[in-house]
Amino acid sequence: MDLWFTEKQTEQFGITAKVNKTYHTEKTDFQQLVMIETAEWGNMLVLDGMVMTTEKDEFVYHEMVAHVPLFTHPNPKHVLVVGGGDGGVIREVLKHKSVEKATLVEIDGKVIEYSKKYLPDIAGELDNPRVEVKVDDGFMHIAKSDKAYDVIMVDSTEPVGPAVNLFSKGFYAGISKALKDDGIFVAQTDNPWFKADLIKQVYNDVKEIFPVTRLYTANIPTYPSGLWTFTLGSKIHDPLKVKDERFTEMETNYYTSELHFASFALPKFVKDLTT
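Structure tokens predicted for Polyamine aminopropyltransferase:
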């Protein structure tokens, strides 16, 4: 008998994948964690029934979270990743030679533990000497930080469980305080097919705090609808005004300098969420 995993993305729609084996399942202090091997997507991390990352398509999300803000900032040295215990965003951050220190704050240490074991190509840089890993509450870490970071990336789950506070206006205000005077932040903000109201709310909240606010998209097939959004807030630097000389060669599978700008060209129904 075939075993299939289905993520119920709405009450009427889901995505399904054939499972070869289950590596681990555990109710952590914060969420239900499952690590499985799928026939199509390779190893897959699932939290509270939602696909977080897979070996096959992980590069899209991690590259777009990291490289858009890091190429926008002229000299990012200190970077914070909130969430992201799988280590994928950290891996991409470290490709930027200007980064002296990358801090990861993940509330659930089990995500880090099992990502290192079953997703080594994603989590492989978490032990890099340029990285500091803290198992802590990202919301509180932000609240205690003052002008500490050049770039902050919020790599959270969807706004349920431990991630609810990471989609609040107060959190974005705290991020502004934690950033230096020319700082930039980016957060994943779900998909426009099922979560249009969330995107609109986050965009308007960020716009009230940051002089430069932009929405951009990427195609991630294992995430709900496949069309994913990211909201960027910047105190000074505009991702649409990055000079060509800022872009340097690095190994990527999705992100390019051309795509950097193209990702901000939004379908009409998505652009309407920003007006």
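The mean pLDDT is 95.
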